[in-house]
Amino acid sequence: MNRETPCETARILRENNDPALEEHLRSCLSCVINLNAPYYEAPAGLETKIRERLRSETAPLSRWRWIAIAASVLLAASIVGNVSLLITRTDPRQLVADEVLSAHIRSLAGTHLLDVPSSDQHTVKPWFNGKLDFSPPVKFLADFPLLGGRLEYLAGHPVAALVYGRNKHVINLFLWPATMSGPNAAVTRNGYHLQSWSANGMSFWAVSDLDETELRRFAAIYKQT
Amino acid sequence: MPRGRPWAYATMICPALIAVPRRTSLRTMNPARKRAHFEQMVMPHLNAAYNLAHWLTRNSHDADDLVQEAYLKAFRSFETFQGHDSDDGRAWLLAVVRNTCFTWLRRKGEHTAAEFDEQLHSMAQPTPNVEATLLNRAALASLRNCLEALPLEFREAIVLRELEELSYREISGIARVPVGTVMSRLARARKRLQECLAGAMDR
After folding, report:
1. Residue range B53-66, pLDDT digits in tens
2. Contacts of A137 (CB under 8 A, 6+ apart)
3. ipTM over 0.85
4. B130 close to A (CB below 8 A)
5. Is the Cβ pair A1, B163 closer than 8 Å?
6. A194 pairs with which residues across the strands?
7. Is residue B4 part of a domain?
8. Could you tell me the residue range of the domain that residue B131 belongs to?
9. Please, what are the domains in chain A?
């Protein structure tokens, strides 16, 4: 913007102090516009407004934004955690495994390991008569001597607990008529191993502090016998 | 061997390291520095930006809003400007202001009649010498009204040429039309303006 010399002709006329300049400035359209049209200058506050908006555009995330982000992350993590917990909790096999393990530990902690202490399967099996509405298959196993049997209450119904030994280890084998047949499962909890399987309409859960291979061998031998 | 200067050893092993730390492109520049750089380049042209916006929208309130919007838009696309450092950024800024205003005006339903007008008269003979008239006080007083009565594209060309004193080439870049179109728009705008001013003198 140079309002002194709007056009080349005007510049020359002015330099020569030519009286024709006055006339030119009123007839040359470029000069007329340049000298007479309003030039709108930015209002006083505009520059500040723009600078502020640019600053907020580049400002790092504010403290509240960070808190909001952290809160959302925590909420998401909590939802994921709760849902996964709910899924594992509601799995009935997991619930049964918990009860089986508790029963096993209870039987070793107190004095009530055996209701019928006997290594003779023909003594143990009839003992359950009248106490259960089913007859548990009590088997003689060469490597795992029978120690006896006991009545136990598990998963909402009375079950048979057969107790076998292996060196100094005790194996509790819980069995009851199957309400559902699931796949075989091997679970390890708190250092105890659990094996479960179904056969002939019965559910079997073996639990012991024996090492896992030994317990699996026990289960295999029991199934084959 | 250079002594006690680990960096010198590093550059001997990997010569590419020499170049890497020196360059700071806008893209990687920290936001505060980028903003400072931007403000330094475009703030001197705030009056030009506002003047153009005011002439295009014909009111100060919208001009104020649109200039702010244009500055933010320009800042977001600041990287693209770095490619051609042909001028001081004024033409680039005015192009952004112009586009912001046109988008807004079009959304508002402003009639942009010049296209039709141009096609109809593209074969028009050279404009007669309309600059002979000596304008009186009344004509000068109605200059603003006559300018505001021009179709948008004509008004744009006149403002950029006569008030911002940009070259035809610069105007063609801002208005995104060939230089020939800029010249014909200017000629036709002058003719209309002359007629409008002459009409004001008769009264």
Report:
1. 999 999 999 999 99
2. A175, A200, A202
3. no
4. yes
5. yes
6. A187, A207
7. no
8. 118-202
9. 92-224 (3.30.200.100)
